């Protein structure tokens, strides 16, 4: 499973809001809803998030293995 928990922590550290993602990164409100719900997003979205937050993928998402 992919978790976006690191994204929210990175945004907090950088003083960014979801409005920042929309205004500076061109991330749509529906994509932000998907991120909050832990749903999949495109690699283009991940690229935009890295650019607007000036970070790398591990700062945005983490892989959590499914536990039986």
Please tell me about this protein's structure.
- With 68 residues, this protein is mainly α.
- 54% of the residues lie in helices and 6% in strands.
- The two termini are 13 Å apart.
- A two-stranded antiparallel ribbon has the order 1-2.
- Helix 2 crosses helix 4.
Task: List its salient traits.
68 residues; mainly alpha; two-stranded antiparallel sheet; 4 helices; 2 strands; 54% helix; 6% strand
End-to-end distance, in Å?
13 Å
Number of strands: 2
Mean pLDDT: 95
Sketch the topology as an H/E string, one letter per element. Answer: EHHHHE
Strand content: 5-15%
Shape: globular
Global Rg: 11 Å
Strand order of the largest sheet: 1-2
Largest sheet: 2 strands, antiparallel
Helix content: 40-55%
Low-confidence segments? none
Number of H/I helices: 4
Structural class: mainly alpha
Brief digest:
This protein is mainly alpha-helical and 68 residues long. It contains 4 helices and 2 strands, in the order βααααβ. The protein is globular and about 40 Å long.
